[in-house]
Amino acid sequence: MIRIDNLSVRFGGVRPLDGLSADLTASIVGLIGPNGAGKTTLLNVFSGFVRPQTGEITMNGVAITRLSPARRVALGLRRIFQQEMVVDELTLRENVEAIADHVVADPSARRAEVDRALAFVGLSGRSDRPGRTLALFERRMVEIAKTLIGQPKVVLMDEPGAGLNEAEAQQLRTVLLGIPDTFGAQLVLIDHDADLIAAVCTETLVLDFGKRLALGPTRLALDDPAVRRAYLGSA
Amino acid sequence: MNLNRRIDIAPLELGRVDRWARRIHPLVTMIVSLAILTTVIAATAGGYWLTIFTASFAIALATSGTGLLYGRLGLVSLCQFALVGIGGWITLRIYYEFHPPFLISILAGGVGASTIGMLWGLPALRMRGLHLALATLMLAGAFQVVITNWSFPNGGDSFLGYMGDKPRVDMDRPWLATSDVAYFVYVSIILAAGLAVLEWHRHAKPGRAWALISKSEPMAIASGVNIVFYKAWAFALAGFLAGIGGGLLAGCYGGLDGGAFAAADSILLFAVSVIGGIADWQGALLAALLFRVPPAFLNGLGVNGNFATLLFGAGLIHALMTAPNGISGQLHDAVARFRARRGKTVPQ
Prior knowledge:
Chain A is an alpha/beta fold. Chain A has 9 helices and 10 strands.
C-alpha cells in the first residue's frame, strides 16, 4: 500500500510533480503518462534521489521522504532503472549476489535467496555466464531478479519491457504477474506499452504535467477521455 | 508458479567448475608466473640489476593499488607514491625505535600509510574525477614538503629519527633473507600475497560492491551499497599495499632518500600504471618495471634517466588513444588472437 500525499517537486521554473496525491492499493500498479509527465521524477522521489518541496510518500504506513536512500532499501524498496544496469565484468549470479550482500542480513541465507530469484526468472541454469555475454532479455531478467532479493515490499520498474519482442514480452508478463504472490511485493510499473500495462496492472495512475490525470482500474483509466486527449490530442 | 523445484542441481555442479575457472585458476596462474619470473631474475640478474628488480616488485604493490582505484572504481589517485614514502618513513621509524621483526615493521608502515591516506581521502572521497585527482596530488605535494624538511629516519634518537649527515645505520633485512637474492624472493612472496588479497577482493563482497559503484552510483545506492564506505575501503587497501611497498623499499636499500619522493613521481607512477594496464596484476607489475627499469637502463647507457619521463609521456598518449587496458591488455589480446588462430587451424 502506497500513499502519495500532495507531492510537489520544482526544478527552477519547471514542476515535474505538482501537488500529486494518490493511494495505490493494487498489487501491480501501472504508472503511465506522456513524455515529461513526471513518472521518472516520481520514482526518483521514491528512491530518495530527489527531495520534494512539499508532500509525503507513505509505504505500508511508513513515511519515507525524510529517510536516507539506504534506509528505504532496508524497508524493502527496490528499483529497476530505465537503462539496464547489468555489470559486464560480473557473472549473471554475481550481479544478483551484489544486491544480496547488502539486503540479506544473514550471509547463510544469501545463496538460497539468489537461487530462488534466479529460478523465478528462469535463469538458474545459466548463472555462471559473464554479464557481457547476456542478451537484452536475459539482462532484463537479471534486473528483475535483483529486485526480488531480501524481502522486497515495493518494486519500482522503469520500462522493463523496452526493446523486447512479442515472445519475450509474453514471458515478462508471466514473471511480473507472479511477483506479488511469490515475493509479497507490490509492483509499480512504468511502461509505454499499453498492452503490457493492460495485461498485468489491475490499477493504473495516469500523470500529465506532474498532476494526476486519472487513477483507477486499468481499463477505465486507459479509456478515460482526459487520458486519450493527453496522449492523442483529442477525445 | 512452482519454479523452485528445478533450481539447485545444475548451479551446484556448475558452481564448482566456475569457482575453479574464475577464482582459483587465476590465483594459481599468478603465483606460478610470479614464481617462474622470480626464479629467472634471481638466477640471472645480479648486483645493481637485482636491486632494480627488487625495488620494482616492491613498487608493484603500489601500482596494484592504483589499478584497484582507477581500474575498479574510476578514482584517480595521484598520491600512491607519496603513500609508499609514508609507509617507508613509518617502517623505518618503528624499526629504529623498537627493532621488531621486519614483517611487523612493514605491516606498521602499511597500516600507517593506509590510515593517513584514509584521513586525507575521506573528505575527498565524495569527490570524483579531477577534484579527487587534485586533492590526492595535494597530499603528494604535502609529503614532498614534509620529507624534504624531515628526511627519512636513519638511526637518530629524536622523534624524527634523523641524525643529520652522519652515516646512516642501515635497516636490517629479515633474518632469513639478508642476501640480495633471498631478499628479492622475500619481496616477491609479499607481492604475491598482496596481489592475492586483491584477487580475493575482486570475487568477494567488496569487489561486487565496487563493480556496482563503477557501473552507476545511483544504482549502487538503490541496491543498498554504502558507497562512501566501499570507496574508503578501496582507498585504505590501496594505501596499505603502497605502505608495505615503502617498507620493502626501505629494506631493499637499507634506508630511503627524501629526494626520491617528489610529487611528480606520484604523477609518473599513475602514468606508468595506465601504460602498464590497470585491469590486472600483470599490468601492475609491468607498470612497476616501467617505473624503474628504463631509467636504470638509460643511466647505464650514460643518458640522464629522466629522459624516460619523455618516453612515458609518449607511452601514455599511445595508451590513452589505442590501448585502454595498457600493455597488459594488448598482451592478453595478442594471446587470445594466437589461440583463436591455432584453434582454427588445428581441425584442418
